[in-house]
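Entry type: protein chain
Record version: 2
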Amino acid sequence: MIPVILSGGSGTRLWPASRSLYPKQFLPLVDDAQTMLQQTVLRLAGSQADGRSIVVCNQDHRFMVAEQLRAIGKQPAAILLEPAARNTAPAVALAALQAMRQQDDPLLLVLPADHVIGGRHAFHQAIARAAAAASEGKLVTFGIVPGHAETGYGYIRASGSGEARPVAEFVEKPDQATAQRYLESGEYFWNSGMFAFRASVLLAELEKFAPDMLHACRQALDKAESDLDFIRLDQAAFNDCPEDSIDYAVMEKTDRAVVIPLDAGWSDVGSWQALWDIADKDNNGNACKGDVLCEDSHNNYVQAEQKLVALLGVDNLVVVESDDAILVAARDKVQDVKKLVNRLKSAGRSETRLHRKVYRPWGYYDSVDNGQRFQVKRIVVNPGQKLSLQMHHHRAEHWIVVSGTARITRGDDTLLISENQSTFIPLGVRHRLENPGTIPLEMIEVQSGSYLGEDDIVRFEDTYGRS
C-alpha cells in the first residue's frame, strides 16, 4: 500500500499554538520529540503501508513537510503542492492520479497528518483488513469504536457484522441525546477521515459522481511543474476544481463503501479539550506541558512555551502561553476558539498566520524586539543554506554574527565574517547571506527604516524558487 498523507489542514481551534502558516500537523503537540506529521508516518513502520508516501499539502508548507520528513529519515515518493484549499476529495484524487504514474494500480491508505493513534498493533491489524477489502474493489473507511456519546464528530452507521461492514449511512454531528442513542445501539462509529482503496476504483467512482472535479485534477497534474522536491500543480486548472470532501463527493454515494471498526486510542486532536482528554494528568486532573505550577487547581490544560505559568484556585480551564499570545478559556468553550481567530483575521492581526519565530527553508528567524522605525531579529541559517539575493526599498540592516561563519554578498563585494564581527547593508543595496560552514550560523539583525514589513523584499535569485 502507498500511504497518502493529507497535510492541508489549518488547525484553527488549536490557536495560539497552531497558525495558518505553521498549523498543528507541524507541531509536537502530543510528543515533545516528534511532530504530528512525523508520528503519522512513523506509526506505519511494520505495517502493509510501510513505504514511501505521497504527501498533499499547501504550497506555503512545502519546506516544512520536506524538512520534517528528512529529519526522521523518510523520503516521500512525491509532495504535491495545492495552490488553494479545495477540501479532501481533490487532494485524494490527485494522490490517486499520481500513484497510478508510480505503480500499476496500487492500493492507497489515506491518512490525515494530524491524528493521534495510540494502539499501533491494533492499527496495523485494521490496515491489513482494509487492504484485503480494498483488493476486492471496496472503498474502505475506518470507523472509530465510540468510547462515549461525542457530539463533535460525524458518525457512520454500519449494517451487518464482521471485519468489513457495508456502510448504511453517514450522519452529521449529532446533538447529545442522539449521540447517546448512537452509542447505545452499537451500530454507529465515529467518522475518522481515514480511507483505503485501490487507486483505479476510487478514480472510477470519481468519474461517476464528480467528473468535473476529476477532470480539473487531471489537468492540474498534467500541467504541473517539478520544483526541487515538489510537484507544483497548475494553479489555473486547480482553481477550476470544485471544493468537496471525499465523504460527500464519493463515500456517501457509492455502493462500494465498507467500514472497518478501529479501537486503537484514536483522536483527531481537534481542540484543546481533545488534548486534555489524551494527555497524562497529575492527581488533580491537570495536564501540564512546559514550566507550569498549579496550586489548588483541578482539571486544567496548561501549556507554557516561554514563561512560567502559575495557576491558583481555578478549575476546568485551558491556558496556552505562546511567544506572542496567551489563550485563557473554559474547557467547555474551546470549540469556539475559531471565533477569536476570525476576529483577529478581521482586524488584520498577524497572530493568526505566524508565530514570533518564523521558519524558512534556510532556517528561521525570531523577532526579538520592534519599534516604530526599528526591528531586531535573531536569525539562524542551517549549514550549507543561503537566503535569496535581495534588496529593500525602505530599510537598512546591520548584521552581527553570534556564532558560526557568514558569507555575505553586499553589492559587488563578497566577505566572510565570524563570531563578534558585523557588517552594514545600506538601503537599496543587493545582498545575500550564506552559511558556508558545518554548524548553524546564528546572528542578530537590526533593521531600521520607514517600513519594516516582510513584503519589502525584492528577490533577484533564490535557491528555493520563491518569487
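Comment: The chain has a mean pLDDT of 95.
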